[in-house]
């Protein structure tokens, strides 16, 4: 990998991931907030509805009890009312599903008339000057474990009251037990909670003092509201706040899950773009656009004439980051992406521009370019190449190609073989490059119209080391000569190697012993 490209990629990628995480978190927070708001207002609304439904039920019950009293004869100050009407009162108690007793009392709480039960020890709780009807209690009678409430209503000078069992309220509220953890009836006249179901929550306690104010009061989890039919009573309700929380936790994943999926897909999408942007392929394409590929030349010396007779054109890449990159690091990607073809054309054109006059002056001097199988698969490459040769007036005999043995051509690939034959026919040279590093053998070589063979530097390096493969050099040279191929030895660094090669009849030498690969200016001086 190209180090600078990689480093830039790393820093950019880190920034990208950080950006993505923070954006996602912001979105998650926003959505959570919205869901929270929504769930809250929905929960409040539902709470509102059920609180009012309960108040309505209670009002309804009171209303039905009170209206049953309407049918009773009016109490007028006459002393014999009770005598005349007691039986009627007893009967209405007997008939009623709610009423346990009826009592008619004077403003000073003196009992004027009452149904039988507990008549003797009956005491009516004090009633303040408040609007009617009222609910008072709880009241307990001797020898009766039950608690009662007195629902009392004023009729001009006197009050008519009914005793109601506490269980009537218990039953009424029973169906709300799962919604509310506290239901209470607060007597605003006597300033006390006269009925309570469930434990009085802390939250309600400080509100008790303000309850005199007959106002609708409602919070997130508590409600205090007056009743239409009970002047002194406020309905006090508290619900578990956990109900809302659990609802929120049920709702939240519903919204967050798609968001997270979307965010992940978006991440993958951007990741693909970034990977592409920072890929070698992208950099190669950019390099091609910006003409960042340029040739260096490594001269080949003919030791029989003691002259440089040719040069191999090697590609170099100067990247955006002013880095000089060797072909080993990008040729493979260039080949895989198909960019090798236009890049090579760019290289060839630059080399032609630079060497045009040099080639003209030295008719015996030639240039060779490296090709890979991709060039042969491309329809246009050779046509463009021929066009360049015409444009720059470079004759075919001064040009050659090197085909590496590692990117092995298929023996049955007739199209490529035909192309090679065509090239040879036109006068271009063809060399088998890096010979000995792949699986090429004599029979393989016979299928292709090469006229040069380049011994790879790994063999040349063994010369003088006494290693077993040192002897392969002679074998390769023999093979080449038997096939009528001229041999170029590559990577020749020492006089010892030179002497050995010379002794074995190799006259074309490429290597640091004579010249390194160099840019045109230096190369021109050398020639
Ligand atoms: O000297 P250098 O490090 O450039 O050579 C590295 C390898 O890259 C060599 O094996 C050579 O064949 C290859 N190479 C150099 N230039 C080119 C080119 O223009 N095209 C192709 N296909 N390979 C090249
Ligand atoms: O395409 P090819 O594989 O023939 O490319 C030749 C490679 O060998 C290039 O990378 C070039 O720089 C390198 N090279 C050329 N001469 C010498 C040499 O004398 N010694 C070493 N070590 N490498 C060389
Ligand atoms: Mn080569």
Could you characterize what this model shows?
The protein is an alpha/beta fold and 527 residues long. 44% of the residues lie in helices and 22% in strands. The strands form three sheets. It has an eight-stranded mixed beta barrel. Helix 10 (414-426) links the parallel strand 15 (399-404) and strand 16 (429-435). Helix 7 runs parallel beside helix 9. The two termini are 35 Å apart. Mean pLDDT is 87; it is low at 211-216. One guanosine-5'-monophosphate binds at residues 298, 314, 370, 402, 433-434, 454, 457, 490-493, 510-512, 517.
Question: Quick recap of the structure?
Answer:
The protein is of the alpha/beta class.
The main sheet orders its strands as 11-12-14-15-16-17-18-19
Structural Rg? 53 Å
Which residues sit in consecutive blocks of at least 5 with pLDDT less than 50? 211-216
Major β-sheet annotation: 8 strands, mixed, barrel
* N-to-C span: 35 Å
Class per helix and strand makeup = alpha/beta
Bound molecules: guanosine-5'-monophosphate, manganese (II) ion
The percentage of residues in β strands lies in 15-25%
> Count of DSSP helices?
15
User: How many beta-strand segments?
Assistant: 19
Shape: rod-shaped
What is the helix fraction of residues, given as a range? 40-55%
> Kindly state the mean pLDDT as a whole number?
87
List keywords for this structure.
527 residues, alpha/beta, five-stranded antiparallel beta sheet, binds guanosine-5'-monophosphate, binds manganese (II) ion, eight-stranded mixed β-barrel, 44% helix, 22% strand
């Amino acid at each position: 990998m190209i180090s600078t490209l990689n480093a830039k990629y790393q820093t950019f990628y880190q920034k990208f991931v950080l950006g993505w995480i923070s954006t996602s978190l912001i979105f998650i927070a926003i959505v959570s907030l919205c869901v929270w708001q929504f769930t809250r207002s929905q929960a409040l609304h539902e709470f509102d509805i059920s609180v009012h439904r309960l108040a309505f039920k209670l009002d309804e019950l009171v209303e039905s009890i009170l209206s049953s009293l309407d049918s009773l004869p009016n109490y007028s100050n006459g002393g014999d009312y009770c005598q005349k009407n007691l039986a009627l009162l007893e009967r209405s108690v007997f008939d009623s599903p709610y009423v346990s007793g009826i009592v008619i009392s004077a403003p000073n709480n003196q009992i004027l008339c009452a149904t039988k039960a507990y008549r003797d020890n009956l005491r009516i709780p004090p009633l303040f000057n408040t609007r009617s009807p009222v609910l008072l209690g709880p009241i307990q009678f001797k020898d009766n474990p039950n608690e009662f409430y007195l629902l009392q209503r004023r009729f001009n000078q006197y009050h008519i009251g009914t005793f109601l069992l506490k269980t009537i309220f218990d039953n009424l509220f029973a169906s709300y037990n799962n919604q509310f953890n506290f239901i209470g009836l607060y007597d605003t006249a006597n300033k006390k909670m006269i009925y309570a179901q469930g434990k009085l929550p802390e939250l309600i306690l400080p509100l008790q003092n303000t309850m005199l104010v007959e106002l609708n009061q409602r919070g997130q989890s508590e409600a205090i509201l007056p009743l239409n039919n009970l002047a002194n009573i406020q309905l006090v309700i508290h619900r578990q706040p956990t109900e809302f929380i659990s609802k929120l936790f049920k709702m939240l994943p519903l919204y967050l899950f798609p968001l997270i999926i979307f965010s992940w897909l978006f991440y993958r999408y951007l990741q693909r773009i970034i990977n592409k942007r920072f890929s070698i392929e992208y950099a190669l394409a950019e390099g091609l656009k910006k003409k960042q590929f340029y040739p260096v030349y490594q001269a080949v010396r003919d030791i029989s004439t003691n002259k440089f007779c040719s040069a191999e054109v090697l590609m170099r890449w100067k990247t955006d980051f002013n880095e000089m990159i060797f072909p080993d690091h990008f040729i493979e990607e260039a080949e895989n992406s198909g960019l090798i073809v236009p890049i090579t054309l760019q290289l060839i054109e630059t080399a032609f521009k630079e060497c045009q006059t040099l080639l003209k002056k030295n008719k015996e001097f030639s240039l060779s370019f490296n090709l890979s199988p991709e060039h042969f698969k491309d329809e246009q490459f050779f046509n463009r190449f021929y066009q360049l040769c015409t444009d720059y007036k470079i004759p075919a005999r001064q040009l050659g190609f090197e085909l590496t043995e590692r990117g092995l051509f298929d023996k049955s690939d007739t199209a490529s073989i035909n192309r090679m034959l065509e090239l040879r026919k036109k006068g271009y040279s063809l060399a088998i490059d890096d010979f000995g590093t792949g699986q090429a053998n004599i029979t393989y070589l016979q299928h292709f119209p090469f006229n040069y063979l380049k011994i790879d530097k790994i063999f040349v390096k063994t010369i003088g080391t006494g290693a077993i493969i040192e002897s392969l050099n002679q074998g390769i040279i023999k093979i080449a000569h038997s096939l009528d191929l001229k041999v170029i030895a590559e990577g020749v660094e020492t006089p010892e190697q030179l002497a050995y090669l010379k002794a074995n009849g190799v006259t074309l030498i490429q290597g640091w012993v004579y010249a390194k690969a160099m840019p045109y200016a230096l190369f021109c001086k050398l020639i």
